[in-house]
């Protein structure tokens, strides 16, 4: 955007502002992926290879992008994905995101490692939200968090299964988030922090406490996100199998969505254990590098499971047109992650709200210019077949 300080209009605009405002280690945590970031980049670039088929002289004077999911109406086929440490990118960031999602009537998903707790988010409004959870070694903690989620009215659980081990994220290692920082590295981080006075004032001081609200009772002596992150790392359970998901299905009475599916075989397994939905996801390119971009596999996965479960897609979505393309290829719904956090870091709740309105307008424009007026009409017919 240069030096003209123009009004942000896209995810890329908000990303540039976020990079300028955030401390380096936080921006890289948000922006980065694992290893060479091949999958991270492929998630985004794969959408550019999908061509739409423009259709003219159709009556598109009334366009409706709304959908229904699990019996609830939403204004468009997308929601806010769970993002760890959201409250480090904006003061009580999860509350700001929840308010923006409520204003657009789309679902917000709270991460296990959010800064704001289940109870704090529930107090912000009476509109329901989704909760994301991992299978921890401490099954008692899993059960307690599930009960807390039920107590505050959560009916939809998004259960992440692609974290059996942690992917190597080089940016985090360079910045010291993975530990082992030298004195010189710590001094560099301190100097970088000092160069971000607006973040220090609004988030560093104004957004306290910076603890993981959902985990405070399990890590009682912790005072910084690093302390909770160490506990989470110890709790990652590499022994989890589909039997554990069956156990989860037995104790969770609400909707169960399995997040982290990339193959038709795993999608069918999710159906077998009773999942109400799956998220076709590669963790935003933050786990196993050099796997498929999610948009490239969603169609086959949807064909494999048909109507037996709801297919949601995340990864690489940076615009409403990307949402439109995912829907056309078979996704029943989508989740956006980095985009809403860039907007949060750039302009808070207003930024997220404005970006979501842009997404909705882009979906509606894509519908109108491909001759569709109802979201249910969006299918492969709006895509240009290559070859």
Low-pLDDT sequence parts: none
Report Rg. 20 Å
Main β-sheet description: 8 strands, parallel
Q: Topology as H/E string? A: HHHEEEHEHEHEHHHHHEHEHEHEH
Give the total of beta strands: 10
Structural class designation: alpha/beta
Q: Note the total helix count.
A: 15
From the spread of the alpha carbons, the general shape counts as globular
Tell me about this structure.
The chain contains 15 helices and ten strands. The radius of gyration is 20 Å and the shape is globular. The strands form two sheets. The protein has an eight-stranded parallel β-sheet with strand order 3-10-9-8-7-6-5-4. A two-stranded antiparallel sheet has the order 1-2. It starts with 10 loop residues before the first helix and ends in an 18-residue tail after the last helix. With 387 residues, it is α/β, with parallel strands linked by helices. α1 (11-21) packs antiparallel against α15 (338-369). The mean pLDDT is 93.
Topology summary:
Layout: H1 11-21, H2 24-31, H3 38-45, E1 67-69, E2 72-74, E3 78-80, H4 93-104, E4 109-110, H5 118-124, E5 130-134, H6 139-151, E6 156-160, H7 170-175, H8 183-194, H9 197-205, H10 225-235, H11 242-251, E7 255-261, H12 264-272, E8 277-280, H13 298-305, E9 310-314, H14 320-328, E10 333-336, H15 338-369
Parallel strand pairs: 3-10, 4-5, 5-6, 6-7, 7-8, 8-9, 9-10
Antiparallel strand pairs: 1-2
Helix pairs in contact: 1-15, 4-15, 12-13, 14-15
């Amino acid at each position: 955007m240069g030096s003209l300080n123009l009004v942000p209009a896209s995810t890329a605009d908000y990303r540039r502002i976020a990079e300028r405002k955030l401390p380096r280690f936080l921006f890289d945590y948000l922006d980065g992926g694992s290893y060479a970031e091949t999958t991270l980049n492929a998630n985004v670039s794969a959408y550019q290879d999908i061509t739409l088929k423009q259709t003219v002289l159709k009556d598109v004077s009334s366009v409706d992008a709304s959908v229904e999911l699990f019996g609830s109406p939403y204004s468009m086929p997308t929601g806010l994905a769970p993002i760890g440490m959201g409250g480090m990118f904006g003061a009580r960031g999860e509350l700001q995101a929840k308010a923006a999602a409520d204003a657009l009537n789309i679902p917000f998903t709270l991460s296990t490692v959010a800064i704001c707790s289940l109870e704090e988010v529930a107090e912000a409004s009476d509109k329901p939200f989704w909760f994301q959870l991992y299978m921890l070694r401490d099954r008692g903690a899993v059960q307690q968090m599930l009960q807390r989620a039920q107590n505050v009215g959560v009916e939809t659980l998004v259960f992440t299964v692609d974290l059996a081990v942690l992917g190597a994220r080089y940016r985090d290692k360079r910045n010291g988030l993975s530990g082992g920082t030298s004195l010189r590295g710590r001094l560099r981080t301190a100097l970088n922090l000092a160069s971000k006075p607006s973040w220090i004032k609004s988030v560093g001081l104004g957004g306290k406490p910076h603890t993981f609200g959902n985990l405070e009772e399990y890590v009682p002596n912790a005072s910084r996100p690093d302390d909770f992150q160490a506990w989470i790392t110890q709790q990652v359970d590499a022994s989890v199998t589909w039997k554990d998901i069956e156990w989860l299905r037995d104790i969770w009475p609400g909707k169960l969505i399995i997040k982290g599916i990339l193959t038709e075989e795993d999608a069918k397994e999710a159906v077998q254990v009773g999942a109400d939905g799956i998220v076709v996801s590669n963790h935003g390119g933050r786990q196993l590098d050099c796997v498929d971009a999610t948009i490239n596999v969603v169609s086959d996965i949807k064909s494999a499971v048909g109507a037996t479960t709801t297919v949601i897609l995340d990864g690489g979505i940076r615009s409403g047109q990307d949402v439109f393309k995912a829907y056309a290829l078979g996704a029943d719904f989508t989740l956006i992650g980095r985009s809403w956090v860039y907007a949060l870091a750039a302009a808070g709740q207003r930024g997220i709200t404005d970006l979501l309105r842009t997404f909705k307008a882009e979906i509606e424009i894509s519908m109108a210019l491909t001759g569709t007026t109802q979201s249910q009409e969006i299918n492969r017919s709006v895509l240009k077949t290559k070859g």
